[in-house]
Amino acid sequence: MQRLRNILSILADGRFHSGTALASRLGLSRSAVWKQIRSLSEQYNIPVQAVQGRGYRLSAVLELLEADNIIAALSPEARRHLGHLQIEWSLESTNQWLMEAVDAPCGTVVAAEHQRQGRGRRGRTWVSPLGANLYFSLLGCFQGGPANLSGLSLAVAVSVVRALTAQGVKDLELKWPNDILSRSKKLCGVLLEMQGEAGGPCRVVCGIGLNVNMPQTVATDIDQPWTDLQHSLPRPISRQRLLTSLLDELLPALARYEQDGLTPFLDDWRRWDAVAGRPVQLLLPQRTVRGRAVGIDGQGNLLIERGGRQESYCSGEISLRAEPEQYHATAD
Ligand code: BTN
Known about the structure:
alpha+beta; Arc Repressor Mutant, subunit A; BirA Bifunctional Protein, domain 2; SH3 type barrels; 7-stranded mixed beta sheet; 14 strands; 27% strand; binds biotin
């Protein structure tokens, strides 16, 4: 792993490097260099060009995440809330790493260039190719028990949209409880995992996966409509700048949630709500609820109107239904 990381950090500049130069910088034989290069393309989907007489180069410049650069660029407020920033080359899952790091201080952030078993909601896999997107988790500590945390995942999603909007990303929407959509396709997912007892202090791992430059070669493994930032922005964006701006929003937001709950996030949720007013199906473990989404309540529960009554739901997966008018149009 370390060898791969070293070779990739040399190739990251997108220039040609001869096999001999790489071998001498890395203290490897030329055949060992070749093996690493092959593994980059075959195992990690990083295309490397090999040109006789010139050497190897990446098909595109690659920006790797550097903890020092990110910490230096954080706002003073975010830096105050940061416990520790760890950048890893490859992890099973940043959420899993942080769940197991029992001594990690509150405000710890771990980001990985690659996840071998990225976790999505409802047991899904989060496709996490090397150096392509952002995969990171933050550790939030909360004094009240889990009952106070029902709106936290919505607050996290709102904070992500605020940060992306500040970076010039347009047309973002939120789909309850915490999907971030761009033009109705999933751009970013949030997965919260909790440790703690009823009524006691809680540690919450807030995992965020943001599609930045998803390679088509791995995209076939994604089982839902998806998009990435390269399709939403006129020019490429620095992953380090993105991560900095996300942490600038998220680290203070966790502290704000602890103090004031969901209230400071509600207006923005309602502004970016993709489902309010639309016919929806809410998929629950044992049944499906059909009705019209009304919005959310102050705790982040989903409100659905059906049969003239308003009901509130704290879990489930929304699927958007076609408008009844459309049914009529096809039926006629
Ligand atoms: C979803 O299914 O919408 C949630 C996806 C969450 C993915 C992120 S990537 C970083 C963190 N580590 C994981 O294993 N999952 C979350």
